[in-house]
Every structure is written in structure tokens, then in C-alpha cells.
Amino acid sequence: ELDRTAVAEASALLDTGRTGTVALSEDGSHCPGGLTLLVEASVPPPRMIVFGAVDFAAALVRAGKFLGHHVTVCDARPVFATPARFPEADEVVVDWPHRYLRRTRTDARTVLCVLTHEARFDVPLLTEALRMPVAFVGAMGSRRTHEDRTRRLREAGLGDRELDRLRSPIGLDLGARTPEETALS
């Protein structure tokens, strides 16, 4: 019983990425004076992948780094996707966004921010992204852009369940004017 309880308690802490102690008695009940287990979780930082090496992306990269994310910028255009433009990014990748997303590691803590503004990038990328078990998928653009994007995604075969996961326009409407204000929202 002690082993089963210890494994269950340790797993609960590890699943949430938390470090902590668990006090157990020999019969597996929770009480002080018995066995104390230290469970130390060591998880990589959550990922933020920013698709579209646009001006707003630099501010979003800084915000992501401030929040402790491992930040990647991906764009198919080598003239825009450069380490010089995004010095705070952990990685700058030149590749088609949907192709990069298919081959990179994601998990339930991964955040995907789509800033590309072009259907040739957005539709294949979001078709992949909205079918993945990631924490967040957001796309920048006006409400009109979102309506057009949604129509194109439906034509690509996505249903209501997948489209409900898309946060667009990305963020909160705070009346942002600067890239930093937009990144914060």
C-alpha cells in the first residue's frame, strides 16, 4: 500500500511540474512521523512558437522570454527571419511554418502565435496547429481577417470543434497601438 500511495502522490506532483514533499506512514496513510518523500520536478520551460517575423513578433518574443518560455520565431522568408532582428529569441527558423510545426516538438504547454497575415501561410499552419494538443493557438488579424480565415479553414476540412480552439483576433482588445502594447494584450 505504501508503494502505491507513494507513486500516486509523486505522480500527481510531477504531472503538474511541481516540487514538494509527501509525508506517509508505513501503511500509506498521510501522517507525520513516518516516511517523507522529496519529489523534485525538472521540466523544460514551456515553448512559445511565433510564426511570422513581423515587427510585432519582436515585442512578443520579449514578453514570452519574460514569462519564462523557450521562444522560437519561424518564417519562410529569410530576409525577415534573422537572429539580428530577434536577438532575444532562443531560435530563429527559416522554414514554411506548417512544415516546421509538423517536425518540431510540442506538448500541452506549447503556445502557438500566428502573426503571418497571409492565407498561403495561415491556412496550412492553422490546419496543423488546431489538430494538435497544444495549450494555445492564436492568430493576429482583424475580425474581418478572422472571418475570411475561418471560411478558408472550413474549406480545408476543419470543423467547429477545431475552430473553437482558435483565439483570433489574438489577445485582448486593449486599444493597443505599439508592438509592445499588442504583445502585452
From TrEMBL:
InterPro entries: MoCofactor_Util/Proc, XdhC_Rossmann_dom. It comes from the Bacteria. Residues 48-185 form the XdhC Rossmann domain. Coiled coil: none annotated. This is XdhC/CoxF family protein. It comes from Streptomyces parvus.
